[in-house]
Every structure is written in structure tokens, then in C-alpha cells.
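Researcher: I'd like a candidate sequence for this fold, 224 residues long. If you have to choose between options at a position, lean toward the conservative one.
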């Protein structure tokens, strides 16, 4: 089940294609997109929806009736819980500047980072022991492991709409065969020792809680 969820997350981000023979069963996937953002990118988004539903065994359930970019993360989590309960969603695509929460390491409060698990573990409870607005612990729910996978379709906030349009148009060019992933991505074909290894790495996220002066990564916090 976990492998299936992970593969669906990859295909929605353009990482893999899906054989036609496996398309019998469809997964419901939520899309959370701010109402005003949707109105501005409607044409590109509906093309994306058609491409994805034609190509992969999914049905997108779009929540676009609220100003989600101004919502409290708790409200977004409740919406995902409702869609999981009523629509049986297995994953969620969060489009635009959807708010997020933070976690911190309880021993010293120094290490902190974006808590993406907040929208994945739907029946657990997140606890902020010292009430500083950052979660310190989680109590896992009765259903073992996270209920959802989450894909953040998050453009730079400085020019949210323009970059979102660019990304959605790029997705359409990819899905219609006009662009393809460069061959240099095939690390495992180039190096047989890595290709034959039973373990493979997938870089599926970003973020770093540190602010080292020799590294750029912490500047992503300003951009996204
Ligand atoms: Ca805290
Ligand atoms: Ca759970």
C-alpha cells in the first residue's frame, strides 16, 4: 500500500508514467487550491486535471471554494480529514502558498523545520508542549502510519500566479510529449554498482533547518 501511495505521488509530480494495464482502479486525490488563485489559473489547472486523469489511475477532488492561502493550518487539516472520510482520498496536492506548521526538537528548541506530516497523519495528535506555536511531539493515531501522501505544488511566493502558470504549462508540455526528462537523470544506468543495488534514493523534498553561512538552502525559506 505504501509503495502504491509513493508511486502515485511521483507520477503526479511528473516523475513516472503509469502503464495502461494498471488503470482499472482509481485513487481519489485531493487538490487544495485557494479560490482566487484558482480563478486566475483556471484554464491551466483544468488542462492539468484532464492530463493527469487521462494518464494516471486517479480522480482529482478539488477543494477551491475558500481562500485557503489565508486559512489556519488546522482548517486545512480538517478539510483533508473530511475528504479522507467522505471521498476516501489517499493523497493531496497543495497548490500555491498553502500555510504550513513547524516542528521543533524538544531537547533544546534550536532545531526546527516545516512539519509536512501535519497534513499526512490525519488520525494522530500533534502536541505543542510549551505553547510557542511549534509542535514538539506527535501521538500516532490508531491507524498505523500516515493516511495521506502530500505533494506541494508551491511556486515562489513573490510571483505566485505567474510561476504557477509556468509550472502547469510545463506539466502539459511534458504530458503531451513535447518535453522529456533529460538523460542525465539516469544515474543508475550510468553506474552499474548503484543500478544493481537493492536500495535506491529518490530526492522528493527540500528544506533544511540550519542556516550555515556556506550554504544556500536556508534561503529557500524566504523564497517559498
Ligand atoms: Ca513547541
Ligand atoms: Ca495514522
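Model: Candidate sequence:
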Amino acid at each position: 500500500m505504501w509503495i502504491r501511495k509513493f508511486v502515485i505521488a511521483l507520477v503526479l509530480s511528473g516523475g513516472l508514467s503509469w502503464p495502461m494495464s494498471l488503470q482499472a482502479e482509481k485513487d481519489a486525490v485531493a487538490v487544495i487550491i485557494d479560490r482566487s488563485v484558482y480563478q486566475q489559473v483556471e484554464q491551466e489547472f483544468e488542462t492539468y486535471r484532464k492530463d493527469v486523469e487521462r494518464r494516471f489511475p486517479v480522480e482529482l477532488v478539488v477543494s477551491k471554494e475558500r481562500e485557503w492561502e489565508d486559512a489556519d493550518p488546522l482548517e486545512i487539516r480538517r478539510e483533508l480529514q473530511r475528504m479522507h472520510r467522505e471521498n476516501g482520498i489517499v493523497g493531496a496536492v497543495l497548490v500555491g502558498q498553502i500555510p504550513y506548521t513547524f516542528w521543533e526538537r524538544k531537547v533544546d528548541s534550536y532545531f526546527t523545520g516545516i512539519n509536512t506530516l501535519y497534513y499526512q497523519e490525519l488520525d494522530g495528535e500533534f502536541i505543542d508542549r510549551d505553547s510557542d506555536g511549534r509542535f514538539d511531539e506527535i501521538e500516532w493515531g490508531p491507524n498505523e502510519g500516515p493516511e495521506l501522501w502530500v505533494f506541494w505544488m508551491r511556486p515562489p511566493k513573490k510571483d505566485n500566479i505567474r510561476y504557477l502558470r509556468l509550472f502547469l504549462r510545463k506539466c502539459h508540455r511534458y504530458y503531451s510529449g513535447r518535453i522529456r526528462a533529460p538523460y542525465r537523470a539516469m544515474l543508475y544506468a550510468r553506474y552499474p554498482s548503484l543500478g544493481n543495488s537493492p536500495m535506491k534514493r529518490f530526492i522528493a523534498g527540500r528544506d533544511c533547518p540550519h542556516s550555515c553561512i556556506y550554504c544556500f538552502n536556508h534561503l529557500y525559506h524566504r523564497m517559498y
